[in-house]
Structure formats: structure tokens, C-alpha cells
Amino acid sequence: MKKHNFGAGPSILPQEVFEQSAQACLDYNGIGLSLLEISHRSKEFTAILEESISLIKSLLNVPDDYSILFLQGGANMQFNMIPYNILNEEETALFIETDIWSTRAEEETRLYGKTSIIASSKADQFKYIPKDFTVDKDAAYLHITSNNTIYGTEFFEDRDYGVPLVCDMSSDIFSRPVDVSKYHLIYAGAQKNLGCSGITLVIIKNEWLGRAKRAKSKMWDYSVYAKNNSLYNTPPVFTIYTCLLTLRWLNKLGGLQVMEQRNKAKAKLLYAEIDRNPLFTGHAAVEDRSRMNINFVTTHAEDEDKFLEFVKPYQIHGIKGYRTVGGFRASCYNALPIESVQVLVQAMQDFEKAR
Amino acid sequence: MKKHNFGAGPSILPQEVFEQSAQACLDYNGIGLSLLEISHRSKEFTAILEESISLIKSLLNVPDDYSILFLQGGANMQFNMIPYNILNEEETALFIETDIWSTRAEEETRLYGKTSIIASSKADQFKYIPKDFTVDKDAAYLHITSNNTIYGTEFFEDRDYGVPLVCDMSSDIFSRPVDVSKYHLIYAGAQKNLGCSGITLVIIKNEWLGRAKRAKSKMWDYSVYAKNNSLYNTPPVFTIYTCLLTLRWLNKLGGLQVMEQRNKAKAKLLYAEIDRNPLFTGHAAVEDRSRMNINFVTTHAEDEDKFLEFVKPYQIHGIKGYRTVGGFRASCYNALPIESVQVLVQAMQDFEKAR
């Protein structure tokens, strides 16, 4: 029996992605070969890569002066690659600290130039997205994390901050329409809304290719990926195919506006129950609540383990909160059906009655 | 109908790996979740990682003072990561140049310290493995590429060169028993003998962790991988599982001595036909002929396209040679059955008769 997968990532993908991936492992499109054994220079993989890039461009309405790159190493690798490629030693990168991921990004950046955390909600358990801060217009860029998986907050607005903007969208990319033109660089590990783990998407404004003047290693140079259409070295063929299948599903459903409506509906349903049910309390400030990662705790400490046990017969999986927050985290990524949220809400109501 | 896949990589894996990977995409071990949606912190993936490491250790008889790391980015990424982690600026790394991959490795190393190519067969189309050279015992290490995919030569001996040895075994790892103690660092992109593309294996002597004194980015620091058992960031879960399945298959067949016998038998069969058939000529020097990549050309230039066309009804796939060499490259990695080689030999004989 299929579980309701609320895991924070690697996370649920559409059921048809699982089925089509399985078929491709056996025989890709009837060519007599598994997708796992075909060359990254084959016409089959060339078509997979081109269609993936084309769907990303159309779904996100990416302007022409941007490049779409596929890299390995996850968002963590980008914490290094961004300053390595963009920041000159004498320049400053600004950060809004909203989670441990932005902390990591800032720490890595120190190796390459100057950094400044211009706003942080760390002292208040990252419960909100800071709103009052001053942006130094001489900075090379400002880095934000649009969705914060551990603490469940999210930026919903594509703002102009007066400096080039870099955004880690690992956990909410493709969950809503985005005005890409507001960003110089967007990056995202695939394993939430895009595909299985092992690939990272980078969308970069072409004028930023080759920006930092340091001598660069080939594999750490965005220009090399841009020039070689992400084929300078062997990419993870199967992983990129799972992205293509997910993008096709997104496109077929109607794209990002439809997806945003679905995600809003799921989040509304679950937050309503958290707010109504006296046994549960939400973590994040109401105005900054993430649609992707919905974090809540039990009002009575002793209920925490009980509720985790209680939901098991409901086939609910992956709602245990991150170790630093405790409680529960219901990740409601694109592929999670609203039926799964309904089951969780039912379990919360049944728990209340049973108490 | 299943093709005979002689592709150079990503390349054939055992049929049972395709089947078990497909099943895991649908439902992993009956847990009600696809392998593509499970957490890298789950007990399921922890078991996959631990069994993979354990099988690598036992199959290669890895001494206790080595670490087994899984990284992303392929061998190309290691061309940077090795000098970044090992070579101090004032030190020298030595190279034996036997293919464009060793050239790339040497070029990247220049960013981090001094380099010296102590032997090269480049001037003679990389037809042989250089044997006469002097190793400067003050060097930090010597780098070799054990198997050369494009030109079809291979080092078969685990030699002591008097300096620490680094080896790119991307295309022949697990094809024969290896005396790991002779090497300080072995690395290999998975996509030949280990699994599907998207993961790189690094086997490093512990005393080398943290060797180079430069400040390092977390994701480019072997010590971080060693300390976190390759789980500092999200690894490619599915890709590592394909490695585990391939390692299990290897183990079940009897390990690396059995594999070496199989590979010797396949290579012997095909080289014998190349040497017998007047229409074909081998590329590499006889004493350095690779068992993994068997390169040959047609004696008459006009036969090249004809033979490529001729083999199609035999369901032979992927034998076109690399663009810089031309002719044919029959890659005979571990998972290629001897029956596929027999079919190719038959096609060569039929081609001779039909001419």
C-alpha cells in the first residue's frame, strides 16, 4: 500500500514519474537498451536534455539572456560555486539568514570575499522572514533562501532589492510562478520538486558568466557548463530523466499557476487544522508560513511521541520534525496529493477525539 | 530485443541491476515508497550505503587505514579535487600521460601546485603505456590512468613507484583484483563497472585526509566526506543503489578473480579475431592492450562505414570509435557477456566472407 509521503527530501514525486522511470530502467522507449546504459552523447539523451531545458524555460518564463545549467553536488556545492564564480576578493556578498542553509551559504562565501548578514531571524528560532534591513547598493549581490525547510518560512514575493539577487530555491522552485528577471542567479537541488537526488539546476543571467576574476577549475566554472550545454563531463543521465518526467507532469497539469493554486489549497487545509486543533501549534509566523514545509508542535510535550505513533495506521510517512525544532514537519511539495493532506488532517482530528 | 551494448560509458550493467532498479523505482523492498522518494537519512538508505562500502572493502580487499567516499561530479571533478586536497603550492605532482584524461588531470593540477609529465605516449597516438621514465622521489605523488578508454591501453600491474600513487581507475575498477595498498588514492566514475552515471568512488589512505594546507570549501574537502560517511549533503540515492546492486552481482559471481578470468576470455577472443582477420587492425601495442576498451580500425578506409552498417542486424550497439581515433571501440566492461563478443566476432567473420 502506497504511503502518504510528507518527507522533507528526497521527497515524493508524481506516481507516473515512478512508473515511467521504472520502465526506462528496463528498456528506454523500446530501443533495446536500459536508460542506465546509454551514452550521454546519444540522440536519446540529447533529446532528454533539450526537452528538459525547454520545459524549464517555458514553465518559468525564463528570459532569453539566461542560461540553464545542470550540475552535480546539490545546493551545498552551490554555496561554494556561487562566490567562486561571482564574487571577487575585494567585494561583499550580503545575506538574509533564515535557516541553517543560508548560514552555510554565508560561511562558505567567506573563503572568496567579504560577507555581511544584513538581517537574521536566528535569535527567534528562524520563525519569520526579516523585513527591516538596509541593502548596501555597492554589494556584489544579495543571497536569500526562498523557502526554509527546517523552520517552515517562505519568501513569496520576487522583489527588487537594488542589487543583483541570488536565490536558493531548492525547496520551492516550480511551486509557483516566479519572475526570473528579478534574479541574477537561481539554484535548486532537484530532490524536492524537480526530480530525484543527484542534480542541481542553476539559472544564471549570462552577463554573470565569468564574473569573478580568479583562475577557475573547469568543473567549478559555470562558463564551462554554459559553453558545453552541461555536457563537459558525463552528467547523471537517469537523474535528469526523472526531472524531465516531472517537468512534463507539471506542464500537463497546466503549469505553475495551477500548481500554486494546488499548493495554496493544501497549505490552507493543514494550517487551518493546526490553528483550530488545541493540541497543535504552528511554528512559523503566520504571514511567513511556507506552503512547502508545514512545521508544528504539540501543545503538550507528552503528545509528541504519541501522535507519531498514532498516525502510523494512516500510512502517514515522514512527518517527524528536524532534530533542532522537534515536533512535526509535513512537507507538501508539488507531487503530494491533497488527499494525503486530508488524511493527515483526519488523523489530527481523530487524535483530538481519542485523547 | 536486447542489444549487445559495447558502448564506452555510461555502459552496460548486469541485466538483474536493470530489473532490480526498475522494481525499486516502483516500490523499494515493499515499504510502500519508491526508492526515488526516500530520505538519505532513512534506515533503508543507511543500509544501502553501508552494504556498498562493505562490499567495496571486501571485493578489493581494502586495508583498514583507507576511507571509502562517494562523491558527485565524475572523474573530471577529481582532476580538481585531488590537487586541491593533496598538493601544496610548492610541491610537484608527476603524471604519466596516456590519454586525454591524464592530460586534463595534469592541466587542472597546475592551478594548485607544480606539475611534471614524466612520460607520455601522446606523440605516438597514445598507442602504448610508457615504460622508461625516472620518478623524482621528492614529488608529492605520481598520477596514472590505469585504463585508457579512447586509445585502449591499460596498466595491469600495481607497481611501487617510490612515491605515493594516485590512480584514475574509472574504466577498469573491479575488472581485476587490485593491490590497494600500492595506492594512496584511487578514484573512479561509476558509469563503467560500478553503476549508472552520477557518482564517483574515492578510496583514500587516511593519512592523506587534510594533507594540503589551503583553506577548503566543505564540499571540496575529502575530510568532510570521510567524517560524515559521505552524508554531509544529500547524495544521489538511486545512483548509489545501482552501485550496490552491481557490487552484489560481482560478489555473487565470485569476486574479482572470477571477473578477471571472464574479462581475459572476452578480450582474448576479440583480439584473436582482430589479429586473424585481414580486414581489421588493432590500435594499441600488443603488450598494453586494454581488456576493457578494444580499439581497432579497418585495414581499408572505405570499410569503416560499411562495417558500421553491416553489424546493425546483429543488434550490435556502440562500437563506433572516439572521434579522434576513428574506427571501432568495443568496450567489454564487466557486465558485457561473452556471448556479445561472440556475436561481434561472428559479424567480423561474416563481413570478411561477404566482401
How would you describe this structure in keywords?
homodimer; about 350 residues; alpha/beta; Aspartate Aminotransferase, domain 2; Aspartate Aminotransferase, domain 1; 2 domains; 7-stranded mixed beta sheet; 9 helices
Main β-sheet description of chain A: 7 strands, mixed
Name the CATH superfamily assignment of the largest domain in chain A: Type I PLP-dependent aspartate aminotransferase-like (Major domain)
N-to-C SSE string of chain A, H for helix and E for strand: EHHEHEHEEEEEEEHHHEEHEEH
CATH architecture of the largest domain in chain A: 3-Layer(aba) Sandwich
Low-confidence stretches of chain A: none
Rg of Cα set of chain A: 21 Å
Shape of chain A: globular
Tally of helical runs of chain A: 9
Helix content of chain A: 25-40%
* Ends apart, CA distance between termini of chain A: 28 Å
As an assembly, this protein is homodimer
Beta percentage of chain A is: 15-25%
Give the class-level CATH name of the largest domain in chain A. Answer: Alpha Beta
Structural class of chain A: alpha/beta
Number of strands of chain A: 14
Largest interface: A-B, 64 and 63 residues
Overall average pLDDT of chain A: 97
